[in-house]
């Protein structure tokens, strides 16, 4: 089946979605791009050499384009409204992360997907990288032994001007700072590989971005039912952006980007490298088949195969909600200066967008209200994860 794809949003991530669907030649065609300003949609179409239509209203575009797949690439505060409408119009949806600024909006989208029987896939492109996929499968195999501790370093660098865009740096429109927008990639991998924790203890701050209401640094400790722990550090102030996950298991460490460490104890308890087991691990890792498509293309391919063949989604709406639940537990713990036990109840302030905005600290007054940057070159998340 040839799927007709509509992209809603013409910002910096738009080219990645265009490339993802155009790579699936014969299975998908991009028929339109929507942006608030028609000129932005037309630029995106021209830059990619598409035979597509530019729109400035997503409802008109969904009805007029004949699309059956929609990519939602707009700021997080608009995700729920657009996604629910697209699902109700009979479209499958590929939704950029973060899924939404609130768990209430996540649940509204999940409900719409259930009611309509349409598919909802949340972008988590790092899941579709062969090295990450292999590490996930190896961890699940039990070969490294029981997972004891996970360390997540979601280190990014953003200059002050990053928050000059009008919608960034405001709880009401962006939905959160580095934990919500940037660490979402690594929190997703943490939830996917280690599961959901029993308890979260966290703190947040803003140490360098005085034109943003939101946090640019967070730290969290997670406790699991099986007695294991995880530690998350996220910020926008680390030069070099060295992002990494370490899964410390009974017999070895598995790391992303790809690396292994394995020791055996001497009589006195000190370590000696276990080279034989390292070779066994590497052989098992290499034996896991590579993915056919990676990154955004992998997610697009998976969505179409799910629609056509019933394949399971790699990153469905529930996965996106789990990631947000962890983020909200971090925010709630930091705001209340106390441990939090997920899940977040529906009556909790941290279930709704309004409650989060009311309870979270506003570190600085938002300044800078650019509609768009003249140049907007970006590095896709996942580029540092191989």
TrEMBL record:
Residue stretches making up the GFO/IDH/MocA-like oxidoreductase domain: 134-254
InterPro entries: Gfo/Idh/MocA-like_OxRdtase_N (IPR000683), Gfo/Idh/MocA_Oxidoreductase (IPR052515), GFO_IDH_MocA-like_dom (IPR055170), NAD(P)-bd_dom_sf (IPR036291)
Pfam family, one: GFO_IDH_MocA_C3
Domain Gfo/Idh/MocA-like oxidoreductase N-terminal as annotated: residue spans: 4-122
Recorded GO MF terms: nucleotide binding
Annotated protein name in UniProt: Gfo/Idh/MocA family oxidoreductase
Lineage, uppermost ranks: Bacteria, Bacillati, Bacillota, Clostridia, Eubacteriales
